[in-house]
C-alpha cells in the first residue's frame, strides 16, 4: 500500500449517495437505468451523458437483467457510478453461468492465487478474491510463500498450476518482493490461464488491430464495463488516461482506443497535464496520488473513472486511515457529469472482472458456450 498521507480533500464529504427511484429503460436488456434528478452537467453545452434513447443504443449487450440503482451526490451534478452495485450484479450473472456449466459438464472453474511475502494490503486483496470466488462457485487455490522465497519456488508453483487441469486461471499477486524478476514470473504463466491479462502476448494482442487477446486486464476491463453499463458513449470521445503502468494505465489506453476513443496518455513527465486533462470527455486516472486531480482540471460534463486507491490518515476511521482516489472527489463531483467513488467504484469491478475472466477461461478450455 502506498505510504499514508494527510489530506484535506475528503473523498466522501459531499457524496451522500442517494438511491434513485428509477424507471427501467428496457427491462429485458442489460441496461443500467438511472434517473436524472438534477440537470446534467452544470455548464456543458454538449453533455457527454447521452439521452435516454441513445442510452438504449449504447448499452452493453453482454449481460442480462441489470437493475442497478444509480446514485447521485447531493448538491452536485455528477452521477455517481456505483461500481459496487454493478460488480454485485455481474457476480450474480457469473454465478448463474457457473451453475449452468457445472450442471451441463460437471466442471467448476478454478482460480489459483500466488501470494509472496506478508504485505497486509496484498493479503487483504487475496482474501477478498477468495471470498468473491466462494460467492460465485469458483474453486480457489492459494499458495502463500514467504517474502524471502526464491524466484524458482514461485516458478515451480506456476508450473504446477499450469499443468493442473482443475485450474483455469492463475494470478500472481503484485507487487512481488524486490529481489524477484517480475517479468520472468509473469511470462511463466500459461497464456491460456493468464486471467490477469498481464502476459506480454495478451498485452501485445490487445495493442494490435485485428488481433484478440485471450484475456483483458481486469482493472481496465472493469473501467470500460462501467462506462458501457452506464450507457456512456466512448466512440469519438477525447479520452485521457493518467498513468501508463503495465497493469492499469497502458492497457486502459489501449482498450479506450479499441473502443474508438481518441486517447492521450498523461504521465509523470507530461508538461502542463492540467491543460491536456481539461480537454478530455473521459478521464481514467491511475496514478496513486491522493486527490491529485482537481475540479479546475475538469471540463464541465466530463466522465471520470478514478482507479487510484490511496490511504489517507483518518483518526476517526477504525483502521486509522481511509481510502481515497486520485481525484479530489468533492471538487470534481460539482463539475463532472459522472464519477466513480473510492471506495465502491473501480475496485469491486476489478474483482468481478477476474471472476469473469476465470469463467471465460474454463468455458474456452472445455469448449462450453
Ligand atoms: N481499483 C483497482 O482495482 C486498482 C487500483 N490500483 C491503484 O491505481 C493506482 C495506480 O496503480 P499502478 O498503475 O499500479 O501504479 P504505478 O505506480 O505502477 O503507475 C503510476 C503511473 O502514474 C504516473 N504518475 C505518477 N505521478 C504522476 C503525476 N504527478 N502526474 C501524472 N502521472 C503520474 C506514473 O508515471 P511514470 O510512468 O512517468 O512513472 C505511472 O505511469 C494506485 O493507487 C493503485 O493502488 C491499481 C490496480 C487496481
Ligand atoms: N496480480 C495482480 N492483479 C491485480 O488485479 C492487482 C494486483 N496484482 N495487485 C494489487 C492491485 C490492486 N487491486 C485491487 C483490487 C480490488 C480493490 C478493491 O476492491 N477495493 C475496494 C476497497 C477495499 C478496501 O476497503 O480495502 C474499493 O475500491 O471499493 C482494490 C485494488 C488489484 N490489484
Automatic annotation (TrEMBL):
<keyword id="KW-0521">NADP</keyword>
<keyword id="KW-0511">Multifunctional enzyme</keyword>
<dbReference type="Pfam" id="PF00763">
    <property type="entry name" value="THF_DHG_CYH"/>
</dbReference>
<dbReference type="InterPro" id="IPR000672">
    <property type="entry name" value="THF_DH/CycHdrlase"/>
</dbReference>
<dbReference type="GO" id="GO:0004488">
    <property type="term" value="F:methylenetetrahydrofolate dehydrogenase (NADP+) activity"/>
</dbReference>
<dbReference type="InterPro" id="IPR020630">
    <property type="entry name" value="THF_DH/CycHdrlase_cat_dom"/>
</dbReference>
<dbReference type="InterPro" id="IPR036291">
    <property type="entry name" value="NAD(P)-bd_dom_sf"/>
</dbReference>
<protein>
    <submittedName>
        <fullName>Bifunctional protein FolD 4, chloroplastic isoform X1</fullName>
    </submittedName>
</protein>
<keyword id="KW-0560">Oxidoreductase</keyword>
<dbReference type="GO" id="GO:0035999">
    <property type="term" value="P:tetrahydrofolate interconversion"/>
</dbReference>
<feature type="domain" description="Tetrahydrofolate dehydrogenase/cyclohydrolase NAD(P)-binding">
    <location>
        <begin position="217"/>
        <end position="364"/>
    </location>
</feature>
<dbReference type="InterPro" id="IPR046346">
    <property type="entry name" value="Aminoacid_DH-like_N_sf"/>
</dbReference>
<dbReference type="GO" id="GO:0009853">
    <property type="term" value="P:photorespiration"/>
</dbReference>
<dbReference type="GO" id="GO:0004477">
    <property type="term" value="F:methenyltetrahydrofolate cyclohydrolase activity"/>
</dbReference>
<feature type="domain" description="Tetrahydrofolate dehydrogenase/cyclohydrolase catalytic">
    <location>
        <begin position="81"/>
        <end position="196"/>
    </location>
</feature>
<dbReference type="InterPro" id="IPR020631">
    <property type="entry name" value="THF_DH/CycHdrlase_NAD-bd_dom"/>
</dbReference>
<keyword id="KW-0554">One-carbon metabolism</keyword>
<keyword id="KW-0378">Hydrolase</keyword>
<dbReference type="InterPro" id="IPR020867">
    <property type="entry name" value="THF_DH/CycHdrlase_CS"/>
</dbReference>
<dbReference type="GO" id="GO:0005829">
    <property type="term" value="C:cytosol"/>
</dbReference>
<comment type="pathway">
    <text>One-carbon metabolism; tetrahydrofolate interconversion.</text>
</comment>
<dbReference type="Pfam" id="PF02882">
    <property type="entry name" value="THF_DHG_CYH_C"/>
</dbReference>
Amino acid at each position: 500500500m502506498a505510504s499514508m498521507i494527510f489530506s484535506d480533500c475528503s473523498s466522501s464529504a459531499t457524496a451522500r449517495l442517494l438511491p434513485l427511484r428509477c424507471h427501467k429503460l428496457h427491462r429485458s436488456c442489460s441496461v443500467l437505468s438511472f434517473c436524472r434528478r438534477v440537470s446534467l452537467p452544470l455548464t456543458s453545452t454538449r453533455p457527454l451523458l447521452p439521452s435516454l434513447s441513445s442510452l438504449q443504443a449504447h448499452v452493453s449487450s453482454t449481460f442480462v437483467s441489470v437493475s442497478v440503482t444509480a446514485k447521485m451526490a447531493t448538491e452536485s451534478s455528477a452521477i455517481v457510478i456505483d461500481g459496487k452495485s454493478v460488480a454485485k450484479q455481474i457476480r450474480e450473472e457469473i454465478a448463474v453461468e457457473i451453475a449452468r456449466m457445472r450442471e451441463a459438464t460437471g466442471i467448476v472453474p478454478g482460480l489459483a492465487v500466488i501470494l509472496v511475502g506478508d504485505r497486509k494490503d496484498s493479503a487483504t486483496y487475496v482474501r477478498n478474491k477468495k471470498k468473491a470466488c466462494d460467492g460465485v462457485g469458483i474453486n480457489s487455490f492459494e499458495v502463500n510463500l514467504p517474502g524471502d522465497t526464491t524466484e524458482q519456488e514461485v516458478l515451480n508453483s506456476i508450473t504446477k498450476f499450469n499443468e493442473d487441469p482443475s485450474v483455469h486461471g492463475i494470478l500472481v499477486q503484485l507487487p512481488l518482493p524486490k529481489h524477484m524478476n517480475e517479468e520472468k514470473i509473469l511470462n511463466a504463466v500459461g497464456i491460456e490461464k493468464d486471467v490477469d491479462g498481464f502476459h506480454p502476448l495478451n498485452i501485445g494482442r490487445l495493442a494490435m488491430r485485428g488481433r484478440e487477446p485471450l484475456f483483458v486486464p481486469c482493472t481496465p476491463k472493469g473501467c470500460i464495463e462501467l462506462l458501457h453499463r452506464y450507457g456512456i458513449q466512448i466512440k469519438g470521445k477525447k479520452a485521457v488516461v493518467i498513468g501508463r503502468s503495465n497493469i492499469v494505465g497502458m492497457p486502459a489506453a489501449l482498450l479506450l482506443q479499441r473502443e474508438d476513443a481518441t486517447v492521450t496518455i498523461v504521465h509523470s513527465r507530461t508538461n502542463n497535464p492540467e491543460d491536456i486533462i481539461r480537454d478530455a470527455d473521459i478521464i481514467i486516472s491511475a496514478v496513486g496520488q491522493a486527490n491529485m486531480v482537481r475540479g479546475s482540471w475538469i471540463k464541465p460534463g466530463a466522465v471520470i473513472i478514478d482507479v487510484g486507491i490511496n490511504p489517507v490518515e483518518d483518526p476517526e476511521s477504525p483502521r486509522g486511515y481511509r481510502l481515497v482516489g486520485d481525484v479530489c472527489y468533492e471538487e470534481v463531483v460539482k463539475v463532472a457529469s459522472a464519477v466513480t467513488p473510492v471506495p465502491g467504484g473501480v475496485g469491486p469491478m476489478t474483482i468481478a472482472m477476474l471472476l469473469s475472466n476465470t469463467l471465460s477461461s474454463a468455458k474456452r478450455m472445455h469448449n462450453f458456450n
